[in-house]
Amino acid sequence: MSLTIARAEGIIKAGRATAEKLGVKVSIAVVDDRGDLVAFARMDGARFMTVAISQGKALASALFGQPSGVLAERAGSPVFQSVIQMNQGRVVFGQGAMPITEDGHGIGAVGVSGATSQQDEDVAKAGLAAS
Amino acid sequence: MSLTIARAEGIIKAGRATAEKLGVKVSIAVVDDRGDLVAFARMDGARFMTVAISQGKALASALFGQPSGVLAERAGSPVFQSVIQMNQGRVVFGQGAMPITEDGHGIGAVGVSGATSQQDEDVAKAGLAAS
Amino acid sequence: MSLTIARAEGIIKAGRATAEKLGVKVSIAVVDDRGDLVAFARMDGARFMTVAISQGKALASALFGQPSGVLAERAGSPVFQSVIQMNQGRVVFGQGAMPITEDGHGIGAVGVSGATSQQDEDVAKAGLAAS
Amino acid sequence: MSLTIARAEGIIKAGRATAEKLGVKVSIAVVDDRGDLVAFARMDGARFMTVAISQGKALASALFGQPSGVLAERAGSPVFQSVIQMNQGRVVFGQGAMPITEDGHGIGAVGVSGATSQQDEDVAKAGLAAS
User: Fold this and answer.
1) Do D49 and C63 touch (CB under 8 A)?
2) pLDDT of amino acid A128
3) CA-nearest residue of chain B to C33?
4) Beta carbons of A110 and A11 less than 8 angstroms apart
């Protein structure tokens, strides 16, 4: 039970189709349950900071097995602040990432950045739904 | 469509003229759309921390395509805190930088530090207006 | 003249086909001329360190506009040691990345990690040849 | 006795004229005796890594009051390695920077990056000669 590149690319493909419909330019990052990158795509015109932020949201979601938007509420807590520091800021507790599950187990996450936080999450959900 | 050294120097020249009128001593940094430095000038008597702060404000403005003063309101947010850490503290979410545009596209930013935040922004705007 | 996601994905697809023929499991990273990630894929079974190393080789190649294998000879030089540190170790001066050009201009690089250094470079070259 | 912005800009202007004659695209950084930036210009088409490397050479030259090319021979020494680490890699012990003096006292340095090491130094020297 682990995240395959085939599934990761399916998530990105479906997410991108949704982003195009919404008219937004985003980066989409898919990570495994350890938070390590499996597949990534930056749409033409997406700002460069979306590269790191999409991965950071995916990492947050994978680490905790929850949507990153849910975690955002606790981002100011001492524990979360330590998690951010431990990872040199590369964990991003902001809306836009969803955990990827298989038979109820967390196997990774997909993180999106470049549009509004809600649109980012919508793109992530659309990617998941199709995979 | 990219920021030339000629335009960057024009912005600095006009910004400095305004700073002299205001009687303030500032650093002025012009960066491209990726946040990399194109041109820089520190006026005689400007403190050394203005070197990094002017560049940090310009970087923030370039990253998000907005005046850094607008971003300052969200500086405490978890996502912005991560962005600061990811960049080893080199992004500064404080008033005093303006995005540089060409035909409606963001091509960089100018950041100023050394006077009050409002004066810093006035110098940045004066630089842009003349370029 | 800039690297599109379409071209980046074409490079990854062709590189992966070659890696499968060689029977190796690799990560393939495509970055733009600034070294920022455009597309990425980690084949099933590729070790997690290949994620960072493929990107680091691509970054080195993009920074200098040369195959990373050519740069490897100078990796111990003082200047290169500083470049590694400036980038928090994220630049990797090892064989396995090739610059991507368009009309003779460097627009990015493709970096590969997971097999022998020579195979890594072969995969990168195969990706480029097909794009 | 300190480095003025007027002198720094004169050095950059003369350096650039020489770079144009040589047909090379460089970044030129002028720092004070503390190594802090006073003025900077990146010529159109100079690679982004030249931004950090020109400043790093200037910093090395200012710190030791010598041409950075002379320091390059000792770059592997334990002390110099510590200096590099203390400064997060931002000191670059490579040819291309010259100290700026006034009445025999070091007041700063000019660092150049983007061409061959010798050409970088030639540009730095030309800038100094004219100022």
Assistant:
1) yes
2) 96
3) B34
4) yes
Class in CATH terms, A5-130: alpha beta
Q: What is the DSSP letter of D3?
A: -
Torsion-angle region of D17 (φ positive above 0: left; ψ -120 to 50: alpha; else: beta): alpha
Q: pTM here? A: 0.93
Nearest CA to C57 out of C47, C72, C45 is that of C72
Res. A16: pLDDT tops 80: yes
The CA distance from B92 to B57, in Å, is 5
Q: CB contact, 8 Å: B104 with chain C? A: no
Best C25, C44, C50 member to test A by mutation, with max A CBs in 10 Å, is C44
Confidence label for B46 from pLDDT (cuts 50, 70 and 90): very high
Contact criterion met (CB below 8 Å) for D92 and D118? no
ipTM of the prediction: 0.93
In whole angstroms, how far apart are CA B103 and each of A45, B1, B58, B65, D95? Answer: 15, 9, 20, 14, 41
Burial class (CB in 10 A: 0-12, 13-18, 19+), B19: buried
Domain ranges of chain D: 5-130
Mean pLDDT of chain A: 94
